[in-house]
Amino acid sequence: VGGLPDGIVDTDMLAANAVATSKIADDAVTDPKENLSGTAKAWANFNGSASSNHIRSSFNVSSISDEGTGEYQANFNNGFSNTNYCVVTGFNSHHWGSLDMRWPLGVREINTGNVRFYVQQVANGGSRVDSTYSFFAVFAS
What we know:
mainly beta; 141 residues
């Protein structure tokens, strides 16, 4: 710890030593949400049937573009260095009478600055449909 020649240590010396030994180098601390391994690097919960900004909640998603019925493009605030990331999708399910309409959300195109996907009905010929609740998350190293 250090001290005076006669072995006396004062609080100022202890404080100075603690700061000197635990100081973190400049630029060593970064945004933990973007750099933790195993965490989502982008995600959103959005309303795909709205005509304006559909995002309810998100991380690293600047906007979601409506590309037509059931077609969307999620644009990232901070893009990725490559397209080797994983997109996990989710959707809602509607019950109309006795018909259970399940809508898969599929990835159409992966880019460094955005991802494009679609919502499609299983029934009724598999047509594209807007979904009130759509979700996706992006995982990357």
